């Protein structure tokens, strides 16, 4: 039995895709007797997700750390040397681990334990002027990614394009980079058989219209809520077409500006911003939606389009990076920087029920290729091969 450590320092109520990615990995490892999993976490709410799993050991790491050890470790991360001070992570060394899965943390390097890393994207390289990527953020991310790629045995990415970018920007050998396509997280599969009656009951509390498009995304500028709102407003002004939209996600940097735009355009009866919702409620809102419109322009691939496909919801998404390859023929694509194009594609799906049905069927088929089973098979193969060959 392989002894695997998993570092999960995401927050269940605000970490979005990062949290859901780790949940998919853990869901695939649970009750698999080939793996004994030591799960290190610092969010007390996390315990509820994996109670009484036979091959899991949950170890709480206090979030509070000594100031000096934290500072020394951060500096060590940036310059690429091992920190002599482990702080709150010291207890990890008490466990006999063959390998650690690290989702963005260099702690394993400081612990001198072999690890596989995951790098989600390097969009700050493409869009350095965005508010979420200030100068020091870009510098620290670049140094952290450089060292993460350098010291990990293997690094998982979501696409071939991501692997090529890491090779181009950091010189990481392509054979060290392992593309594993994204899947829908566990709660989508858990509730996917929810019928429309139950979905309607769960949705009542939000007082939503009968028809709407849905966009689950945290409020960052690259998520492109602004152009999506402008496109919906354009349909109202130019074509007298009233499209309603539901936004789900945590309130980050672009939230206040987004709300101001909704107010200025007098769209409070059209755009509903619901915040971060319980997982079951999210599935219910998906089930009632006419389509998912994924407007973000700064992702290689993304999780929500796979969620929608699994649930039988038609998909519209941006045509940037690897998203066209991710969706295949199972989505309508638009230029995320062109408000007219976004509006036209929304109109196409909003007024055409046969197009929605066709996309939903194609989405089901594509979701089988992007399944949770294929996702975890890729991870298990990588873990086993890495331990055997280290």
Describe this entry's structure for a reader.
By secondary structure, the protein is an alpha/beta fold. It has two domains: 2-182 and 372-389, 3-Layer(aba) Sandwich (Rossmann fold), CATH 3.40.50.2000; 186-369, Glycogen Phosphorylase B (Rossmann fold, 3-Layer(aba) Sandwich). It contains 16 helices and 13 strands. The protein has helices spanning 17-29, 67-79, 107-111, 123-126, 135-151, 160-170, 186-191, 196-203, 225-239, 255-264, 279-288, 303-311, 323-327, 339-350, 353-369, 372-389, and strands at residues 2-8, 35-41, 56-60, 99-102, 115-118, 154-157, 177-179, 213-216, 245-248, 271-273, 291-294, 315-318, 332-334. The strands form two sheets. Strands 3-2-1-4-5-6-7 form a seven-stranded parallel beta sheet, sandwiched between helices. α10 links the parallel β9 and β10. α9 (225-239) crosses α14. The chain is globular and about 65 Å long. The two termini are 16 Å apart. The relative contact order is 0.12. The model has no long low-confidence stretch (mean pLDDT 92).
Rg (CA only): 21 Å
> What is the domain tally?
2
CATH architecture assignment of the largest domain: 3-Layer(aba) Sandwich
- What count of helical segments does DSSP give? 16
User: Could you describe the largest sheet, including whether it forms a barrel?
Assistant: 7 strands, parallel
Topology, number of strands: 13
Q: Uncertain spans, ≥5 residues at pLDDT below 50?
A: none
Share in helix: 40-55%
Beginning-to-end CA distance, first to last residue: 16 Å
Widest sheet: strand ordering: 3-2-1-4-5-6-7
Mean pLDDT: 92
CATH superfamily of the largest domain: Glycogen Phosphorylase B
Order of helices and strands: EHEEHEHEHHEHEHHEHEHEHEHEHEHHH
**Level-1 CATH class name of the largest domain:** Alpha Beta
Q: Which topology of the largest domain does CATH recognise?
A: Rossmann fold
| % residues in beta strands | 5-15%
Label the overall shape.
globular
């Amino acid at each position: 039995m392989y002894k695997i450590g998993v570092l999960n320092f995401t927050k269940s109520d605000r970490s979005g895709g990062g949290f859901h990615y780790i949940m998919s990995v853990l869901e695939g490892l649970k009750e698999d007797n080939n793996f004994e999993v030591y799960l290190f976490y610092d969010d007390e709410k996390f315990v509820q997700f994996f109670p009484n799993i036979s091959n899991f050991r949950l170890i709480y790491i206090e979030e509070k750390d000594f100031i000096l050890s934290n500072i020394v470790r951060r500096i060590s991360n940036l310059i690429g040397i091992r920190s002599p001070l482990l702080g709150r992570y010291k207890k990890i060394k008490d466990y006999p681990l063959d390998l650690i899965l690290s989702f963005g943390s260099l702690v394993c390097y400081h612990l001198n334990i072999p690890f596989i890393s995951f790098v989600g994207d390097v969009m700050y390289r493409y869009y350095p002027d965005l508010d979420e990527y200030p100068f020091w953020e870009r510098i620290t991310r670049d140094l952290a990614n450089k060292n993460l790629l350098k010291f990990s045995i293997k690094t998982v990415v979501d696409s071939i394009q991501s692997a090529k970018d890491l090779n181009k920007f950091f010189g990481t050998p392509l054979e060290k980079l392992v593309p594993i396509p994204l899947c829908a997280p566990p709660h989508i599969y858990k509730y996917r058989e929810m019928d429309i009656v139950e979905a309607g009951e769960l949705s009542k509390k939000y007082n939503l219209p009968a028809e709407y498009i849905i966009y689950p995304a945290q409020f960052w500028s690259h998520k492109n809520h602004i152009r999506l709102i402008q496109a919906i407003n354009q349909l109202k002004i130019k074509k007298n077409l009233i499209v309603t939209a539901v936004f789900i996600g945590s309130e980050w940097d672009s939230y206040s500006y987004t709300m101001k735009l909704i107010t200025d355009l007098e769209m409070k009866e059209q755009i509903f911003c619901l915040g971060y919702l319980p997982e079951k409620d999210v599935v219910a809102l998906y089930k009632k939606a006419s389509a998912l419109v994924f407007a973000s322009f700064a992702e290689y691939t993304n999780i929500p389009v796979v969620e929608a496909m699994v649930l039988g919801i038609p998909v519209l998404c941006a045509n940037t990076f690897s998203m066209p390859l991710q969706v295949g023929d199972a989505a309508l694509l638009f230029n995320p920087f062109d408000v007219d194009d976004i509006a036209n594609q929304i109109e196409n799906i909003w007024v055409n029920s046969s197009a929605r049905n066709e996309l939903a069927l194609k989405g089901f088929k594509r979701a089988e290729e992007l399944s949770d089973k294929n996702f975890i098979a890729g991870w298990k193969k990588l873990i086993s091969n890495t331990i055997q060959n280290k």
